[in-house]
Design brief:
1 helix; Neuraminidase; four-stranded antiparallel β-sheet; about 0% helix; Immunoglobulin-like
């Protein structure tokens, strides 16, 4: 905590960029098509662990990160691409990680990880623990359990008495007893894992197991009656139900205890409960609004960490702080931009993020949004944002600062997969049980497809000439009267599952399907033909730019066609994943791709440039948020200038004394990234400002050691 308190001693630094503008043609600066943006940050955290060396480890998606400054900055480790489900530490500070690819070991504080799986199956290791008495390691998963008596060099099977139960959790008690939580109840071994006995507990799926160093074993069960927490104070001989003060709907997925014996329970509803009397009573400690809390860790140097379905959080004083910045592992299911350039990204389990700099950086705007599966986003001409989720529809009238639940008090389905506006500005929604219309911005809804059999509608789009099109799990439907009545399109098979739709002002309609087939019409839906993207995988999204270039998001990357789908070519250079969930174009023509587990990528160039290999710029300079932020010791400042001119980038201290000159030269129009090294500066809050003619903008950056 000392390094946090040092932030009180702040040094204000002014980064000033002076630009004198003249006109020159734009030029190409980058070679790859894509670059990763600074967000949306966070992601599904499988495991969080705080070591004796004051290092925090966080497993998101298939990547393992470490932080040496309490989560302010994260470094990607050399762990192979694996789901890391649990980490433990031995007396020598060696680390062991249970993964879907076996056990990995690190002897240098997590910098290097090597497989330690001799004798183990190479898949499905869900948990690991270590006996404090014998130092024996135990690893289990997939219906088998193994033990190692030589620090993981080799393993042998040791699951007598466990049957075929799949092992979910392993925990060692100070007494030397080993506890195993399975899909079919809890077990205990009192002879270092050689034999296992079933405990007198429900034969249900175990949510978590915890053994306090001061005594007491806790086992939670998840199922029909979620909040079922049992405690034993006699090493498992007898058990008492200790869940009276927990909500009945809150399943406990994780436990942790601090050095004073206070125990914490992470639940399925994103809330953390605590007990100061060994589980006799529980009290709400925090509501993280972040989905299920799968992992809790207490640092011996202070601070509690929680890994959720959304991000990793750390307790700060009486509150909690999201420490997921710099961890872009979100599943970004939908992206949309307003006419004024504000962009929004819907994250499947993390809410909504907003960008004001063409998608380079993102900030969370999820105030009031409880954890839901967000799947679609749409913006009206006036800037009103509509958000669809598995659990309802929402609206923001203030650029995401607050959200209104449109499902409450409405005859409206819970699952909303798409929105569209007809030529009159009326709002439509594609939902799991029909098509709905609202003439008052979603305050009231009327179903408009009642003449049809019930279909699962996945998307909806408006064309010109008062025509609208809706995709479903059983073909495509259209309306010629602004959505008042709907009919099936007979030339598109009812077996086709339409997963994406887009249209342009010329009356060209494109519909993507789960088979990779694209249905296309060049006469506003009167006749249809098919083409095939270079994959038989589902098409998640289609978007088209003003030049009629069509882009498709698939599980094998992004594809582009310049001839209305006659031929498709992949455009994947620069992507770190090919699993693309969403696509959108901003007003400047930049293409943004939402991915599964890797945040958002953006095209390095505008797709509407007049010729290949050129950049299209905004009419005014753009200053992006530095990345990473907070940083230690270096960060990157990115800016864009629309015309050539003298560029000066300097650093000043609080007394306006010059610290260093980063740039002092004439530059052509383009996008530039400048590294700023704060090694010689004290921790604190800094400012940097872009000045270009009458344009002035200031942003914050934080140096945190």
């Amino acid at each position: 905590m000392k390094r946090i308190h040092n932030c009180i001693h702040k040094v204000f630094v002014l980064v000033s960029i002076a630009v004198v503008l003249t006109s020159l043609p734009s030029q190409r600066i980058y070679g790859q098509f894509w670059e990763q943006t600074a967000g949306p940050y966070g992601g599904h955290v499988w495991c969080v662990f705080a070591s004796q060396r004051d290092i925090v480890y966080t497993a998101l998606a298939t990547r393992l990160y470490k932080s040496t400054n309490a989560g302010a900055n994260w470094t990607l480790t050399t762990m192979p691409s694996r789901y890391v489900l649990k980490i433990i530490e031995d007396d020598s500070s060696d680390l062991y990680a249970a993964t879907d690819g076996g056990i990995y070991k690190s002897t240098d504080a997590g910098n290097q990880w090597l497989a330690a799986s001799q004798g183990l199956p190479l898949t499905g290791i869900f948990s690991i623990t270590r006996s404090p008495l014998t130092q024996t390691l135990f690893a289990g998963g997939g219906g088998v359990l193994f033990r190692s008596t030589n620090a993981g060099a080799s393993w042998s099977r040791s699951d007598s008495g466990l049957g075929q139960h799949q092992i979910l959790h392993l925990q060692a008690a100070s007494s030397g007893s080993i506890y195993a939580g399975t899909y079919g109840g809890a077990f205990r071994s009192k002879d270092d894992g050689m034999h296992w006995d079933s405990l007198d507990l429900p034969s249900l799926s175990v949510g978590a197991v915890h053994c306090k160093s001061s005594g007491g074993v806790f086992v939670s069960f998840v199922g029909t009656n979620l909040a079922r927490v049992f405690r034993s104070t006699d090493d498992g001989a007898s058990w008492q139900l200790k869940a009276d003060s927990l909500p009945s709907y809150a399943g406990v997925y994780s436990f942790a205890a601090d050095q004073g014996g206070y125990i914490y329970a992470g639940t399925s509803i994103g809330a953390i409960y605590g007990s100061s009397n060994n589980g006799d009573t529980w009290h709400l400690r925090a509501d993280l609004n972040g989905g299920a809390i799968y992992s809790l860790a207490v640092s011996p140097y202070g601070g509690i960490y929680a890994g959720t379905e959304v991000s990793v959080f750390r307790s700060v004083g009486l509150g909690w702080q999201d420490m997921g910045f710099g961890l872009p592992h979100t599943n970004t299911t939908s992206i949309a931009f307003s006419q004024h350039g504000l962009g929004y990204a819907a994250v499947s389990t993390g809410g909504v993020f907003r960008t004001a700099d063409n998608g380079y950086s993102w900030v969370s705007v999820s105030n009031g949004l409880r954890f839901r599966s967000f799947v679609s986003i749409r913006i009206s001409e006036s800037g009103i944002v509509f958000l669809g989720s598995i659990g309802g529809a929402f609206r923001s009238d203030d650029n995401g600062a607050s959200w209104i639940n449109l499902t409450s008090g409405n005859t409206f389905p819970l699952a909303t997969y798409g929105f569209a506006f007809n030529s009159s500005g009326t709002l439509f929604a594609a939902a799991n049980n029909g098509l709905y219309r609202s003439s008052n911005a979603g305050n009231k809804w009327v179903r408009v497809d009642s003449a049809l059999a019930t279909h699962w509608f996945t998307n909806i789009v408006a064309s010109n000439d008062a025509r609208m099109f809706a995709g479903s799990d059983s073909g495509m439907f259209w309306s010629a009267d602004n959505g008042s009545s709907w009919n099936r399109i007979p030339s598109i098979p009812s077996t086709a599952r339409i997963t994406a739709l887009c249209a342009n002002s010329s009356g060209h309609i494109f519909g993507g399907s789960t088979s990779g087939t694209v249905f296309r019409s060049f006469d506003n839906g009167t006749s249809w033909e098919t083409t095939q993207v270079g994959t038989n995988r589902p098409i998640e999204e289609l978007t088209i730019n003003p030049l009629s270039h069509l882009f498709a998001a698939t599980a094998t990357g992004v594809y582009r066609t310049l001839n209305n789908g006659d031929s498709w070519l992949p455009i994947n250079s620069g992507l770190t994943t090919l699993s693309i969930l969403s696509l959108s174009l901003n007003p400047s023509g930049f293409l943004l791709a939402g991915t599964q587990g890797w945040g958002v990528f953006r095209s390095r160039q505008s797709t509407t440039a007049m010729e290949e290999g050129t950049l299209a710029f905004a009419n005014t300079p753009i200053l992006s948020q530095n990345y990473p932020n907070p940083f230690n010791p270096s960060t990157r400042i990115r800016f864009q200038i629309p015309s050539s001119g003298e560029v000066v980038l300097k650093v000043y201290d609080l007394l306006s004394r010059e610290v260093t000159t980063l740039v002092n030269e004439r530059k052509p129009p383009g996008t530039y990234e400048i590294d700023f090294d704060g090694s010689g500066l004290a921790s604190g809050l800094y400012l940097y400002r872009l000045k270009a003619g009458s344009f002035v903008e200031t942003k914050k950056l934080v140096l945190l050691r």
